[in-house]
Structures are given as structure tokens and as C-alpha cells.
Amino acid sequence: MRPTSSPPPGSRRPSAAELSNGAGNFMLRMSVIGCEADDALDRTRDRHGRTVHPGAAEAARAHRDKAAVEAYRTHLAPYAEALLDVAHLVLDPLPPARHLAGWQAVLDGLAASAAEIRRILEWPTGLGTKDERAQHAALWPHLTAWADYGYIASNLVDQRDGGQHQKSPLTDEERQLWTEKAVAAQRRGELDLTESWYAADWHPITLAYLVQEDESTVVALRGDPGVAGWQVIGHYAHEYEAGRDLPAPVPPGVLRPDLSRHNRPAPAPEMSLQDLLRDVVEGRSAGDASNALLGAVQRGYAAGPMVRLQKLVETGAQFASALETVQGQQIAARLSALGRQIEFLTGEIEEAAEDLGATVAVLPPHRTPVLRVRPRPAVDTSPPVPPPLAGTPARHR
User: Fold this and answer.
1) How does DSSP assign 200-268, residue by residue?
2) What is the pLDDT of residues 2-42, one digit of tens each?
């Protein structure tokens, strides 16, 4: 049976809230399905990330695909086409901004996926057959496209009633007065930033607490607070009042455009730092400790913890730079420098580990182990008197 993608002619068009809720419920359900699938797939791998139960992994993916199709039929199928129609109606009149071309491409991609979903669902299949499993597997990439990027269409629908505009803007005189107050508070260290987002016109808005004479006021700043030229565009008694007046936030961007929560690459085998430390502690020869240290600095597919740490720091630097703020650029420079230090340290550890292995030595025999389990006392002997409890004086006879 082909699911309906839009209401029949003459029927009531769904409201903006119904469209947004339908997309939101689908994305939420897909998030749950993804977490359950991740847990199931983790159970098919060993502690280093290698798949050791391929049959169970295939069954877990089949169960995931089937649940995703059911979620689509329940939550998204009745609203997908109308959701995209309303999203385009909101997108078209927006003022020019750097992100609009990307949003348009996302909406076009979602429309193509919706059409492909309808086409694949028309395949003749039998319940529980191999053909049905193949159909569900073919649907998975298109369902995850909606799960990953449907929030952009949903957010546009939420802005249908003018959420991109400030309801009570300040006059020029009020804006200048409050900006001067906020700049003075920032110099005193009494302007505490709490939240930031982008409005539909691409300008950043930041909420902050302005502390003045032991009283705090919520103010909204427009622009980069780290650069001269920002302005206060509103002042409020609390954050809830600010949220009702200010332009609604648009979805933040992503560090990499090919991000997909539901289609992550298979994890590379990884030796944990805890395992490497245990190898050193339990080792007997210099080669044992050397191999563990070399494992920490190993590069390539199964990279060691030190190499992964360097990658994490470098990616953090990329993220900080992508914020496109002055403070973000400064932090990116710091993280980049730390990444270079980790790279240097990694090389030093690798050289020292190789030198350790070249010693061809073992631990001396006088480093004997200590038994953890004490021998039991003889049956006819009295058990040892336990020590007194801490804080309790021992009795003297």
C-alpha cells in the first residue's frame, strides 16, 4: 500500500504545528532507533571494535531498517509533502543570507528522498521475505536523510508566523543607552554571556546578564561580543521574556557538511589506554613495555590514544575557527599549538619506546609477586584480632 504524502483533495490542510510535530516525532523516533541499533551492533564486536558476530550484526541492521520504515509511515508520511511546501513558502521571502542556498539545497534533497521513498514502497514484496528486507535496506539512506536534515524544514515551518522578527525593538536612543551600559559592564567583568544563536537574517544574538549595583538584567546583544561594534537590542526581566520577544533561533551549522548521525562509518579497531597500561604493569620484559608504548603512538587505521588525542585537539581547533568569532579564532590558535606539541610528544614517546625495546632486558627476579589470598589458619588456632575501628579507642585491661 502506498502511503499518503499529502492530504486528499478537499480535506483540511494540516497546521504548521501538526507539520512540525510530525517531523519532530519522526526525528525523535529515529534517534531512539539509532541508539538501540548502536547498542545491538556494539554487542556484535569485541572490545577493540572488530565485528565478531556478522550474522547478529546483519540481523540488527535489518531490525533497524524495519523500525525506521514503520516510524516513517506513522509520523512523517502524512506530512512530508506539505511540510516541504510550507518550508519553501517561508524560505523564499527571507532576506539574502549566506545560509539560504544551503537550506534550499537541503529542501531539494529532502524532496528527492521523499519521492524515492514513495517509489521504493511500491515494490512488490511479501511480509518477512528477503525482498522486504532488501526494500527496507534501500529505504534506509532516504529515511536517514530526513532524520538528519529534516530539522531545517521543520524550523522553517515554525517561523511561518513571523518568528524571524523582533516583536518590540528598542528606539535608537534606548539602544545607544543600553549599549553604553553593557560596554561599561563588560569592562568591569560584569557582563556574563549565557546563550547565543543566529537569527534568520544571519546576525548573531547573544543573551547576557548585565550586573549593575547588585542587580542583574537580561540584555540581548547583536553582533560579536568579542569585537567592538555590537549593540544591545533588548533588555528583559528574565530569559523567558527575552525568548518571546527576540527573533527565533535558526538551526546552527555543522562542522562538516557530510555529517550523518545515522550513517557513521564503522569504528576502527582501538586499543584502549587502560589496556595498554595493563600491558605495561603485567609485562615482564622491556619488549612488553615497549610494545604498549608503541601501541599508544601507532598511526594509521588502528591509531593509538596519543594519535587520536592529537586528532581530537586539531578537530577542536577547526571547530573553534569555524565559529567565526574573535575569541573562536584565538582559541583555535591555542588548540593548534597544543596539537603540534602533542605531535612532538608522540614522536618522543615513539623514540623512547623503541630504545626501551632495544635494551633486550627483563625485570630482575627479586621483584617477586605478593599473594593476594592469604593461607587459611589451622583449624585449632584462634583467628587474629581485628584492628580497632577508626575513631574508636582500644580498650586496655
Assistant:
1) TTS-EEEEEEEEETTEEEEEEEES-TTSTT-EEEEEESSHHHHHHHSPPPPPP--SSTT--SSSPPPPP
2) 333 445 555 567 888 899 999 999 999 999 999 999 999 99
